[in-house]
Amino acid sequence: MYISKIQLTNFRNFKNQEISFNDGINVIIGHNNAGKTNLIKAISLVIDSNQSKKLNVDDFNKNIEIQTLKTTPPKISISLTINKGKEETPDDLVVISNWLTKLDNNYEALLTYEFFLPEKKQDAYIKALDSIDNTDPKALDKAWKLIKHEFLRFYMHKLWGGNINNKAVADSESLQKIDFQFLDAIRDVERDMLTGRNTLLREVLDFFMDYDIKINTEKTPDEKYTEIKERRNEFSEKAQVLIDELNKRIKLGKEQILSYAKNTGASFNKASPDFDGTISEDEMYSVLKLIIEYESGIKIPATHNGLGYNNLIFMSLLLAKMQINADVDYLDSNAKIFTTLAIEEPEAHLHPAMQYKFLKFLNENKKDKKVRQIFITTHSTHITSAVSLDEIICLHNENSQTTIGYPSKVFPTLQSQKYVQRFLDATKSDMLFAQKILLVEGIAEQLLLSILADYLDVSLADNHIATINIGGRYFDHFLYLFDSSQENTIHKKVVCITDRDPESKGKANSKYKKCYPFEYNLDTDKYDYKFNIFDQKYEHKKHPNITFFSQNDKGKTFEYDLVLNNPSSNILITDSMSNKEEIQELMTLYKDSSSTVDDLLNVLRDSKENTRIKTSIQANSNYNEDEKKRHIIASRYLNSIGKGENALELAYNLSENLKKKGTDEFIDFIIPPYIQNAITELCQ
């Protein structure tokens, strides 16, 4: 069996949400305060027998109108649906039999936790809250304070089994068959595991003592019992030898010590103090300490390890304990049937390589049936890149509204899903965690967009925006994840920046080739023309959460537009670009208002591409003189740069210039309008 879904009503940031789970590993992700920890807390309220069921006023969802709060006492409801899983045991159906809501090949059971005000107190509640003026700006705050101080103490909690309308209390005996172990993000593993005095380590050691006998399938239970008993008796005899030796060594000293006791009157009624003792196996555990032994033979205490290493050890011990709890031969009727493990932010103390090893470790334990279902909350891109999309559940909270996304359920084709799965490496899976997303086509935009935003006095980081380079015009694959008009998607605001990329082809040709903006529609009798129309598919304000921005009809690419808007800016000159002197001369000529288009064209050295530029510029009658000059520099610049290295150097130039802002040395730099619009849309 497995927990197939949870229904949360009025619990913390969950107003009324249903979340589906996998039969196996569930990796729950989302930005800060998206509700990951709250979700684990909700699960524990239902199935963790050691979890306190009493809640406080801050556990209610506060997104409620005053009139509703005045007429209806707030109530929290959390329901877990349990279904038949891939790996069933004969006892599964027995455990949930009293909670069944459907019995067929895929049985279904329901457990519901409720936190509510008893009916006999509701009239007093309504009367008390009626005194609050609805028009008071602090009406809601006053109402919650009244609930906290006057009515919270009357609230009750119940755990119902089966159909909620039947109000049948879930039997505790069956609940005890569920083992829920939770590792929170802030934990003291040294305190929890490193010596035999600790309960966890004692239980693990006790279970695995004489393990060679316990797992021997050739022996009967009686034979195992007899052999283990013999070992214990042998141990006791050896231990008694040590006790006798100790008493012998302390004999004279003991007489001296006890003489003081006799003199103080501690001996009376023919009784006197003495020392004696025995040593059992479990008492000997307290002298054991967890150590780490290196190949060289050096041994160090585990307390000297890093937190990450010790966390892995602790998790292994916890899984060992879960194996103990589920062992029928060891615990008989007290054995657990359904084992679940919840881990909060395992990356808190693990570096990336350890995170990967940790996930592999969990998967192996799942396959070995040491744990039935696993829940992990994380901010780690390394963890999300190491699991499949099927195992990821995305929480997103915006304007007090929580939405749930299931990445594996949004793709119309398996090809798109595989493409995105391969793409989500440790860097690019940032898109699953950020609050807003900026998708760009290349490395230049990825490196420069945050700096260009700084020129506009806006911070992408402060607005929790991830800039993702998708390496081309492959937006459709990724937009399946975020299209809020479709089911199961992640409802984040997404802005895409795409190049106009004009193209042309001869009427007799079959393949389009890139062309310059000043060539577009220059000769429609001989050529067909087209350009990228992504921005027309997702026009501004036409889609709930996705918007595209691109250059106008005289634009081409990102770098091209930077030059069009800054045709004389030395910031754009980088060491790695070719034809540096030529471009510098073109920019100098542009600054001279008396220069002509021909003056700029004469600077271009002889080449096939430059001849094309000259011919097209001279043939274009739609561009004015200034526009032609700008396009000459932009086209020459574009043909002189390499994408990656130039982008890095340009990022450095722009950053250094920005440091001079407010001084005479600062050089004004114009951000292309479509870039300004994209940043404004994301940051508003």
Description of the molecule:
The protein has 684 residues and is an alpha/beta fold. The protein has 27 helices and 21 strands. The strands form 5 sheets. Strands 1, 2, 4, 5, 6 and 7 form a 6-stranded antiparallel beta sheet that branches. A hairpin with a 5-residue loop joins strand 5 and strand 6. Helix 8 crosses helix 13, helix 21 crosses helix 25 and helix 24 packs antiparallel against helix 25. The longest helix has 29 residues. It is elongated and about 115 Å long. The two termini are 46 Å apart. 33% of the residues are buried. The model has no long low-confidence stretch (mean pLDDT 87).
SSE layout and pairings?
Elements: E1 2-11, E2 14-20, E3 25-30, H1 36-47, H2 66-71, E4 76-83, H3 92-96, E5 100-102, E6 108-116, H4 122-129, H5 139-151, E7 156-161, H6 172-175, E8 178-183, H7 189-193, H8 199-208, H9 211-214, H10 221-249, H11 251-263, H12 281-284, E9 291-293, E10 299-301, H13 307-325, H14 328-331, E11 338-344, H15 352-367, E12 373-378, H16 381-386, E13 392-398, E14 401-405, H17 414-423, E15 436-440, H18 443-455, E16 465-469, H19 475-482, E17 493-497, E18 503-506, E19 513-514, E20 527-530, H20 534-537, E21 546-549, H21 558-565, H22 580-591, H23 597-603, H24 608-619, H25 625-638, H26 643-659, H27 673-683
Parallel strand pairs: 3-12, 3-13, 8-11, 11-12, 15-16, 15-17, 17-21
Antiparallel strand pairs: 1-2, 1-4, 4-6, 5-6, 6-7, 9-10, 13-14, 18-19, 18-20
Helix pairs in contact: 8-13, 18-26, 21-25, 22-25, 24-25
